[in-house]
């Protein structure tokens, strides 16, 4: 009985530290905000992407030993997921504003201005798109950056910070749900000069 009593108060293993360069961490914040999730167990995380090679690069960058496995995405399309566990990282992401099942509920994130460009790069790589083409009439180069999501407050936050930091503007559009089972889809679009300014800030050398 006395031996059992000594085990009750014994502390469990300490959570593994999470350490990576700040630009990588804030990129990870943006990526998980769009193409990842926090699991409810308080330590597990998941990132989904089309390309296995992309997740391999993420795994190396954050020093993870997590497993990459295939999964079926929307409309049965093949994708891949990186699953790993780190309680310290989970807690820090929670403090920034990420939560489990956050697609419809995510709002503004607590991202310092100096790291916003890295976070936005992760967001664009997750739920964004970059398009470059030549205008058929004047032959000039055209650019657009789009970010899509189901949470208007999250996209409004991105729009406000971009306008405040870089003095460029974008427009918000909504695509009505296809049926009662679906939700509206919000689209944040930056065109031409605004898109080029954002790309220059986010995709800097190094």
Summarize the structure.
Helix content is 38%, strand content 25%.
- How many helical stretches? 7
What letter string, H or E per element, gives the SSE order?
HHEEHEEHHEEHEEH
Report how far apart the termini are.
61 Å
Decide which structural class fits the backbone. alpha+beta
Largest sheet: 4 strands, antiparallel
Helix content: 25-40%
- Work out the strand percent: 15-25%
Number of strands: 8
User: What would the principal axes of the Cα set say about the shape?
Assistant: globular
Spatial order of the strands forming the largest sheet: 1-2-4-3
| Low-pLDDT regions | 1-7
Radius of gyration: 20 Å
Mean pLDDT: 88
What does this structure look like?
The chain is an alpha+beta fold and 206 residues long. 38% of the residues lie in helices and 25% in strands. The chain contains 7 helices and 8 strands. Strands 1-2-4-3 form a 4-stranded antiparallel sheet. A 4-stranded antiparallel sheet has the order 5-6-8-7. Strand 1 and strand 2 (44-49) form a beta hairpin. The longest helix has 15 residues, at 152-166. It is globular, with a radius of gyration of 20 Å.
